């Protein structure tokens, strides 16, 4: 339901901005390639849980999907993971060209901050700034970008232990998922204690999500993944299953989902119920 | 004077953030490679001209230099302009590697928004948001990133006229220079009429700056440029001298500097005097 609204917003949010046509096509090619819209839905839901009309924060929530999309485009580049396929279609630089893919990513990242700063709906500017800072910090060089740098560094090495893997994933994928949750609460002006609980939820489902992703890369099918099975192992990536095996990885994902549910114990209502169910849903994909 | 303070701030602004060491080295390699720090100085000066203590907006002003630096790193990439040299040293991807250069750029761009959002000094959050939005809009897909996309598209073509060249440069280099001026005025809470005058100044010196840059690419020396003379022509770039010749290009730059000075006619004091002198200084580099 909320994912469909996000989809509708994403379909039009780049229109009428005066973007050169080919660049806009490249940005929309990846932005509108489907996906679960997990991060915006998290942001909308925590905003709702802390008292806002979720729809009032749509530009902000959608902006996080722009950031997620840019990261996929740049991660797929020849100099990075060199992936030809993304969600069953040619990756951005294969569909367009490398320069256009770099610029499409740069454009999505920058425009995301424009969307965030433009959120209206009577939300105090101080709340918007606090939420924006949470996102910039999670997406930047000590968050997602730093995690990707570590991922490149770790690929092909055999001395990476579970602690290093966890830190890398907490930066590379966890930080953006966590901040999606925190941003909604900050936009809603939630008190510090509530923000902390929401942050705990976000960190736990972020961890669960990554473990599940690693498991699916070994056990999923190509249609489900949109890319060849086992591509992590082929690229020499360290994964949870490669360190722990499938069964212990599954148990670890379930443990994280349980932690997530516990973090939201103080919250009631439809959005809180949805977020609790979501935590289990993430793990059920591999159970 | 202000440039030295910017330099000092830039030297420490990435420290202690938990950035993976190699990534931080790559970011600082390009960020601390010298340069005139034109954009931060413009932001500090217009903030001062509209009543703020310039030093109170330093994180914001410095952030614009991070954005400028990221754009240079990505523009130099093999898939883009494929430049081996920048300011007389190996370009980022030559000094490190291509993946690191892409991530260093991504990190600088994202961290810039973190710096902008962190500006304190009692500046109202609404002013910060307005200024941040000006920067995101100028740097994004309908500004700097879009201009670079057009530049790639125009390279090697012989059907680009002066109007197209002007639009491309207004996006690629003009927008960030203009927004550096506007952001300072918005942070200072200047009235709309003053913001408009400052915007006019910024647009005019942005245009002058680009024309001068094109002229220097033909008439400068390698030591001054930090790269081979004539590289624009060699790459098949359309430039002001290639369309108008050197003399008419010089006259056009002077015309823009004069417009810039006129835009500031209503402003008095040290910062306004500095900005007027700066407009002429830009043109004097090629006179």
UniProtKB/TrEMBL annotation, chains A, B:
GO terms for molecular function: metal ion binding; prenyltransferase activity. PROSITE patterns: POLYPRENYL_SYNTHASE_1 (PS00723), POLYPRENYL_SYNTHASE_2 (PS00444). GO terms for biological process: terpenoid biosynthetic process. Pfam families: polyprenyl_synt (PF00348). It comes from the Bacteria. Keywords: Isoprene biosynthesis, Magnesium, Metal-binding, Transferase. Gene3D superfamilies: Farnesyl Diphosphate Synthase. Its cofactor is Mg(2+). One of its GO terms (cellular component) is cytoplasm. Belongs to the FPP/GGPP synthase family. This is Geranylgeranyl diphosphate synthase. It comes from Nitratidesulfovibrio vulgaris (strain ATCC 29579 / DSM 644 / CCUG 34227 / NCIMB 8303 / VKM B-1760 / Hildenborough).
């Amino acid at each position: 339901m909320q994912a469909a609204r996000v989809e509708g917003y994403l379909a039009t949010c780049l229109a009428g901005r005066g973007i050169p046509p080919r660049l806009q096509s490249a940005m929309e090619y990846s932005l509108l390639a489907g996906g679960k819209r997990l991060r915006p839905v998290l942001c909308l839901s925590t905003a709702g849980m802390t008292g806002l009309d979720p729809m009032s924060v749509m530009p902000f929530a959608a902006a996080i999907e722009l950031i997620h999309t840019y990261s996929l485009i740049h991660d797929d580049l020849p100099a990075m993971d060199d992936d030809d396929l993304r969600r069953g279609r040619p990756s951005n630089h294969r569909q367009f060209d490398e320069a256009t893919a770099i610029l499409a990513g740069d454009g999505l990242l920058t425009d995301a901050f424009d969307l965030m700063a433009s959120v209206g709906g009577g939300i105090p500017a101080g709340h918007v700034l606090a939420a924006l800072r949470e996102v910039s910090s999670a997406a930047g060089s000590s968050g997602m970008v730093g995690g990707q740098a570590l991922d490149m560094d770790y690929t092909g090495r055999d001395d990476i232990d579970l602690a290093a893997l966890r830190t890398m994933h907490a930066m590379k994928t966890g930080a953006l998922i966590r901040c999606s949750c925190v941003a909604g609460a900050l936009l809603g002006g939630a008190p510090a204690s509530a923000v902390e609980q929401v942050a705990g939820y976000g960190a736990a489902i972020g961890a669960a999500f990554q473990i599940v992703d690693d498991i699916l890369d070994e056990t999923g099918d190509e249609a489900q993944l949109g890319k060849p099975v086992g591509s992590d192992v082929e690229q020499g990536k360290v994964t949870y299953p490669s360190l722990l095996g499938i069964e212990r990885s599954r148990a670890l994902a379930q443990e994280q989902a349980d932690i997530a549910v516990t973090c939201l114990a103080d919250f009631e209502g439809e959005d809180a119920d949805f977020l609790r169910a979501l935590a289990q849903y993430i793990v059920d994909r591999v159970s």
